[in-house]
Write a structure and sequence with these properties.
Blueprint: E1 4-8, H1 13-24, E2 28-33, H2 36-44, E3 48-51, H3 57-67, E4 71-74, H4 88-113, E5 117-123, H5 146-163, E6 168-174, E7 176-178, E8 192-194, H6 195-205, E9 212-216, H7 226-232
Parallel strand pairs: 1-2, 1-4, 2-3, 4-5, 5-6, 6-9, 7-8
Helix pairs in contact: 1-6, 3-4, 4-5
Amino acid sequence: MGHRIFLAGASGAIGQRLIPQLLAAGHQVTGTTRNADKAATLRALGVGPVVVDVFDAEALSRAMLAAKPDMVVHQLTDLPPGLDPSRMGEAVVRNARIRDEGTRNLVAAALASGVRRMVAQSIAWAYAPGSEPHGEADPLAGGASGNRGISVSGVIALEKAVLSAPFAGVVLRYGQLYGPGTGTDTAAGASPLHVDAAAYAALLALDKGAAGVFNVAEPNPAVSTQKAVEELGWRADFRLPA
């Protein structure tokens, strides 16, 4: 049975790969974008587009109330194309704000709308130093400094907001993305993850698995993904048809 899904960040890299999976599963999707030019693209994909800024809490709440979703998928980020190193310094700050203030606004809007489940994007490389592979119960690097400290603080705020809310909160700690829309077609990093497989995990988390945290990445020595495989039925080799 399909759900009414409010997809925050529908025009992003994961959002665009998640939309066809949601529609194929029979879900009705309302998707957000900050860019009015992208609304037509979302509509053509079969999504009900909403142009809204996550930092405008009142507008966000109105949009969600109008959509009447059962579930929210949080795929919002604010990163430069191809993770351009010359722009990453300021992007880290913007992205952390989305994870903190933006997530709090999403959670508040979801509560006002009677949402019963939220699936949110986090990252799998925020763990504190320690024995590897890291499991989901391992501590995050809350004491990190510099840009890493800013990024991890945002992640901690996001996860706390989603997991402590009075609905079923699911956090997907994604590895380093590659594939369409990510700026690279090559797997890299300690815990790589194809964008299609990342989107697939979000689809599965709507109906499977208990509330909580899941590492989502290709098999690697840095983080364990056994929980996602066993509880969500997730596959790292999932790809959309060409």
